[in-house]
Amino acid sequence: MTNEQYETLIDIWECWFDSFFSPYDLPNRVRDDERLRFAPKSFGYVIPDYNHIGIYELTPAGEQLLTAKRKDEVFLRQMLKFQLPSPYHIPTVKAASFCVKPYLEMLRLVRTMGTLKFDELQIFGMQLTDYHDFDEIVGKIEAFRIAKAENTGNYRVFKTEYLYNELTQIYQERIARGETKTRESRDRSLAKFLRTQASNMRDYADACFRYLRATGLVAVSHIGKSLSIVPERIADVDYILRTVPREPISFATETEYAIYLGNATTPKLLTDNKRQLVMKIQTDFPGVAIPAKLTLLELKDMLADLLAQRKEESLTAQVAEIKDYRLYDDIQKTYEQITNNELYDNPLMLEWNTWRAMTMLDGGEIKANLNFDDYGKPLSTASGNMADIICDYGEYFVCVEVTMSTGQRQYEMEGEPVTRHLGKLKTATGKPCYCLFVAPSINEACISHFYTLHHLNLAMYGGKSTIIPLPLNVFQKMVEDSYKVDYTPNPKQVRAFFETSNQIAKHADNEKTWYEQIINRALHWLE
User: Fold this and answer.
1) What residue ranges do the domains of the chain occupy?
2) Which of 121, 239, 386, 441 could hold 270 in an S-S bridge, CB 3.0 to 4.6 Å?
3) Around Cβ 410, how many Cβ atoms within 10 Å?
4) Using CA atoms, how far apart are residues 507 and 527, in angstroms rounded to an integer?
């Protein structure tokens, strides 16, 4: 694998999955590169570095991941093949016995239940270690739904008690032996043990949510925190559930398994059948002429182009609605839901909603670097090597960074990357650039850091850096002010706000004075 291929593979993986690894990628990991030894290996994109020399070979599936127009199809094939047991995952003596293709069964579970809540996936879906237990898990979910409907008390208390009861049954033998100590703590109490296992199951369910979402077959309701099959993809899902065998395959060696897993053409999907593919295009895009002599690959490219066109049309329509302030109430409501932790993926929704807010707030060309699905809905956050949002105002640029992190962690996670992204934008555009940093609350270390950067002429960051940190409620007030005036704020007014920060920083005695004054200016930015 060339260095360029390596970096591209990492970028794709981190962009789509936001550094979440498979919940089933547990034991027997090869000690090689930190970013390749988990999911890229487990899903068959690279052949393991058996010699521990840092050299990886791309499988055919890995090659496809780098070159395919529709990467979601590549992800889907690999997820459907992933199985336990496997030569990559040797269970410990205490581990449960597995007999499952987990993502195939999770897809089946979503299809069977109609909608699958996050809590249901956490409590019950993660128990599906053997596909023979599928009907039992369905029964448990149905019983949980009845009990939930009958519950008259606080749902959070009800859910926790239900989860802990399930965990107590799952680990009853271990608990009976007194083996309740976890690796992270010396606390041997049952309460601590159950909290730890509940947290683990939540992390696994969260990863599974994201993986299923990346296939393009499953939609997420952020408000309902649930999964459902995309209506237009039901035929695809039914074809998979009908044709992909549920029984894991036995392999004598890791090499044999690696060859099987790295095959870029298996399992067959509905879109691999030319007749079915033509029918799909005709159904999803009625009126589109399909030349009779197109090959299967050409038909797939045609479908990919049509889906990309539909996404762009959807985003264009969204932007038109946003600029007309028709979505103002929805934008402010979404911020309230984020603040109240009412949505499934708050970081993604904060990034998406801030793109909408910036689009409405002023007259620039606003580009979100997050990933959108085929229908213009937010899919995953921007990758770690670029700004969340880039605003082109002609004579200058603004990058916008958002985060849900708070406290010292906010500074550790965002301090240097935000500065680096701004410097990268300066280099790429050759124009004056500024940065807006938005979070529910701003850590004092971030305030100090960004104030200092107003004064430091650092070559690696393109000189002095104008970065303004704003609490989310202050930014919401700026959006409200732009809605209340009878005109659209222009690029000069936006730039004046950032230049005011530069002037305040020149004369302020310290970072606290600068921050107080820039917050005051933000609250009256159109006056």
Assistant:
1) 3-261, 273-311, 341-523
2) 239
3) 22
4) 22
Name the DSSP letter for residue 86.
B
At residue 460 the predicted structure's pLDDT band, cuts being 50, 70 and 90, is confident
Q: Which pair of structure tokens corresponds to residue 398?
A: 């603004």
Q: Amino acid identity of 8?
A: T
Q: How many other C-beta atoms lie within 10 A of the C-beta of residue 311?
A: 16
In degrees, rounded to 5, the angle at the alpha carbon of residue 279 between the alpha carbons of residues 275 and 284 is 150
Residues 95, 93: Cα–Cα separation, whole Å: 6
DSSP line for 486-523: SSPPPHHHHHHHHHHHHHHHHH-SSHHHHHHHHHHHHH
> How many whole angstroms separate alpha carbon 121 and alpha carbon 262?
28
**Of residues 401, 25, 413, the one with CA closest to residue 211:** 25
As a residue count, the chain comes to 527
> In which region does residue 405 sit, left (phi positive, over 0), alpha (psi from -120 to 50) or beta (all else)?
beta
What is the per-residue pLDDT across 168-223, written as a single tens digit (0 to 9) for each? 988 888 888 887 776 666 767 888 888 888 888 888 888 888 888 888 899 888 88
Single-letter amino acid code for the residue at 175: I
Nearest alpha carbon to residue 138 among 97, 172, 108: 108
Report helix, strand or coil for 47.
strand
**Half-sphere exposure (CA, 13 Å, Cβ side) for 364?**
27
**Amino acid in position 430:** G
341-523: what CATH class? alpha beta
In this structure, is the dihedral angle defined by the CA atoms of residues 215, 217, 221 and 226, taken in order, positive or negative?
negative
Residue reference for tokens 């159904």: 283
Helix residue spans in 18-70 (DSSP H): 39-42, 60-67
